């Protein structure tokens, strides 16, 4: 073909030389920068970050049972949170909406009634057989997969509720009582913020929790292991990143046995 390759075409483009940007910083901006620096340093010192590699199995083992590795890991996080705190909470898992024009993300909600029934059985709060635990696990995975599918198709509730709230605000309508309800506040109080951040370059990617008493938990499912970056704040008496990570290890081992 006579058509030049994209790489060859790029070589013919002369790069624009860099230009020094001179910023005019007045006293007000200078003070704001100093205050922001203090706040950022305080947050950094308060961040409890723990990196954990689970080595007993990876995504290939999970896939051999025809289970989505992402769904498997998500329910393992639900089990872990329940073991540590004896309850489930609003959980955030980012879901890409790039298939839509101007699409960004929505939220796959993993804390379901099916998840609660399963984690209670796994923690022996209900005297059930191993067969029943497997059945509850399968129902949990099925529900999570269902939520994932309708969320990535733009049918999740989070963005729609936010859109209704913001459109009403822009039109001058009074805020609906739904958005003032305590339950809606708890609905958005993500004590467990999660995201799959896959990479094959050996890079560990993490982020902080989004609420003072919460966890951030990113994960990278690899062929024979799973990497986790667990974060929380030292200032919270409710959380501990290393304890959560080691509890997660136990959850994954337990799940591998059933």
UniProtKB/TrEMBL annotation:
One of its GO terms (biological process) is neuromuscular synaptic transmission. GO terms for molecular function: choline O-acetyltransferase activity. It holds the Pfam family Carn_acyltransf. Residues 13-249 form the Choline/carnitine acyltransferase domain. The keyword Hydrolase does not apply. It is an enzyme of class 2 (transferase). Keywords: Neurotransmitter biosynthesis, Transferase. Its EC number is 2.3.1.6. InterPro entries: Carn_acyl_trans, CAT-like_dom_sf, Cho/carn_acyl_trans. The keyword Transferase applies. GO terms for cellular component: cytoplasm; neuron projection; synapse. PANTHER family: CARNITINE O-ACYLTRANSFERASE, CHOLINE O-ACETYLTRANSFERASE. Belongs to the carnitine/choline acetyltransferase family. This is Choline O-acetyltransferase. It comes from Cupiennius salei.
């Amino acid at each position: 073909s006579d058509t030049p390759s994209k790489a060859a075409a790029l070589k013919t483009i002369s790069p624009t030389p860099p230009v020094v940007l001179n910023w005019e910083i007045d006293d007000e901006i200078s003070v704001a920068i100093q205050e922001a620096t203090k706040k950022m340093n305080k947050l950094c010192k308060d961040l409890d970050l723990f990196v954990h590699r689970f080595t007993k199995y990876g995504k290939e083992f999970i896939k051999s049972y025809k289970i989505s590795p992402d769904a498997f890991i998500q329910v393992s996080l639900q089990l872990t949170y329940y073991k540590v705190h004896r309850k489930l909470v609003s959980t955030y898992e980012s879901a890409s909406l790039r298939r839509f024009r101007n699409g960004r993300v929505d939220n796959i909600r993993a804390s379901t009634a099916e998840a609660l029934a399963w984690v209670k059985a796994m923690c022996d709060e209900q005297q059930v057989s191993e067969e029943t635990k497997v059945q509850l696990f399968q129902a949990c995975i099925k529900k999570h997969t269902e939520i994932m599918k309708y969320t990535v198709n733009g049918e999740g509730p989070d963005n729609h509720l936010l859109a209704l709230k913001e459109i009403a605000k822009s039109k001058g309508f009074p805020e609906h009582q739904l958005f003032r309800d305590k339950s809606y506040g708890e609905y958005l109080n993500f004590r467990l913020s999660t995201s799959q951040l896959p990479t094959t370059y050996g890079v560990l990617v993490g982020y902080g929790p989004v609420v003072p008493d919460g966890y951030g938990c990113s994960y990278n499912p690899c062929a024979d292991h799973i990497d986790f970056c667990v974060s929380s704040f030292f200032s919270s008496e409710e959380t501990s990143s290393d304890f959560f990570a080691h509890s997660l290890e136990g959850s994954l081992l337990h799940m591998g046995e059933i």
